[in-house]
Design goal:
423 residues; alpha/beta; TIM Barrel; eight-stranded parallel beta barrel; two-stranded antiparallel sheet; 15 helices; 13% strand; binds flavin mononucleotide; binds iron/sulfur cluster
């Protein structure tokens, strides 16, 4: 009889085998140059996570075209001259036998302001994004192949830079997710209406990547398990599971399950919200909002944040009930993200067989040694308080933990590790 997998049991994702089952989920870094090139500052964020042997790290979303660039200082994979910088990132990971996966993304309508030289923001349909106020124009039929090509070319660059795989970002209300969701996709052509039509662009993107990268190159996808859009027409969990099945038929190697669009705020990052809007509007991606939107959002902040706190308090494994529905319907590995930070919580998700692996974003920012510390039962470690200070600053300030106490603990932990790596 084979025993149930644990945190440290290897997992095959297509042709790639990872050494354990806790991964770092994608986190946009706001640490590249203004033109999207990798910097030392970006690598410094990853160094401790890599040194601690995290089995697989998924990069922050990398824009596949300038039109899809969603935030300032976001890293890009849209041009060949970015490959040498991306290769430095890969080399750093490979020195410690860590698998590095490039997340490929087009922001669609969830873009605070278009990148220089971009004349229009696009989406499935012309539905205004309420947090940023952007009004996109629908992608024309003759533009679909350009989107597919930008993902395929980005995949080729990822492989050339040495990445162990790519992850298609089809969650969180970015372009591919905008096509999947009826609220943002009001089309009545071959890319709208039925689920098959709404999934068409995503399937074409996967086919484009497969045809360029071959059968053996690991391709993962991040999907919502729920769109979390009350009173609007979100895709249902059942529909999203069907999308995952279609992707499996087309050769996807693993599915990571998350939730929410920007407009389902606070859905994607369940936690604490006090001060979130003020921070985002002053130093985060929200600072590009119009003056009028800022005034309204500042005024609503106390109520909105209190309601958010009541509806979505911090909770370990907050996407698990959806993720296990994916796992039950799929043969490929299913990874669940959302609030994981304790050994008990992570192992319960895996040993119960609910999902094959777990990933973490905020808990890894606070504790970049999370994998090593949980496997090794090291209890003196920084623990994320889910204050959401990091995500509130996204797009404006470099990714980091913005809780002073936790930063101090993290610094001390990294210092101890460098002095006594065996402990
Ligand atoms: C600062 C920050 C940046 C993020 N950037 C991305 C991103 O680039 N791509 C993505 O798929 N998710 C992104 N996320 C969402 C996380 O990957 C994850 O889905 C979410 O935070 C829930 O996981 P957690 O509870 O472990 O933080 C980001 C989250 C944070 C906190
Ligand atoms: S700022 Fe630090 S404590 Fe707060 S959510 Fe982010 S990582 Fe966790």
């Amino acid at each position: 009889m084979t025993s149930a997998p644990t945190l440290a049991t290897p997992l095959a994702i297509g042709s790639m085998t990872v050494r354990g089952r806790l991964f770092k989920s994608a986190t946009s870094e706001t640490r590249a140059t203004d033109e999207g090139f990798v910097t030392d500052e970006l690598l410094a964020f990853y160094e401790p996570m890599i040194e601690a042997g995290t089995p697989m790290i998924i990069t922050g979303n990398l824009y596949v075209s300038l039109q899809g660039k969603s935030a300032d200082r976001q890293a890009g994979i849209d041009t060949d001259d970015k490959i040498p910088g991306l290769r430095r990132w890969v080399d750093l990971a490979h020195r410690h036998d860590v698998k590095l996966v490039a997340q490929l993304n087009h922001g669609g309508r969830q873009i605070g302001h278009p990148a220089p030289g971009v004349d229009r923001l696009v989406s499935a349909s012309s539905v205004r994004e309420p947090l940023y106020g952007t009004k996109p124009s629908p992608l024309r039929l003759d533009e679909m192949s350009g989107v597919v090509e930008s993902f395929a070319a980005a995949g080729e660059r990822a492989r050339e830079a040495g990445f162990d795989g790519v992850q298609i970002h089809a969650a969180h209300g970015y372009l591919l997710s905008q096509f999947l969701t009826p609220h943002t996709n009001r089309r009545n052509d071959a890319y709208g209406g039925s689920l098959e039509n709404r999934a068409r662009l995503l399937i074409e993107v996967l086919r484009g990547l497969r045809s360029r990268l071959g059968e053996d190159y690991p391709i993962l996808v991040k999907l919502n398990g729920t769109d979390d859009l009350p009173f609007r027409k979100g895709a249902t969990t059942g529909e999203l599971v069907q999308v995952a099945q279609l992707l499996q038929d087309e050769g996807i190697d693993a599915v990571e399950v998350s939730r929410g669009h920007y407009e389902s705020w606070p859905g994607m990052v369940q936690g604490n919200y006090r001060g979130f809007l003020k921070t985002s509007l002053t130093v985060g991606a929200g600072r590009y909002n119009t003056r009028r939107r800022k005034v309204v959002q500042f005024a609503l902040a106390p109520i909105a944040e209190r309601v958010a706190q009541l509806l979505r308090p911090p909770q370990e494994g907050f996407n698990l009930s959806q993720a296990e529905q994916f796992a039950a319907a799929l043969d490929v590995p299913v990874i669940c993200v959302g609030g994981f930070h304790t050994k008990a919580g992570i192992e319960a998700a895996i040993t119960s067989g609910k999902v094959d692996a777990v990933s973490a974003a905020r808990a890894m920012i606070a504790d970049p040694h999370l994998y090593r510390n949980t496997v090794g039962d090291i209890s003196v470690r920084p623990v994320c308080g889910y204050c959401n200070g990091c995500i509130a600053r996204f797009g404006g300030m470099p990714i980091d933990c913005y809780s002073d106490d936790i930063r101090d603990e993290r610094k001390a932990m990294i210092q101890r590790f460098h002095e006594h790596p065996a402990q």
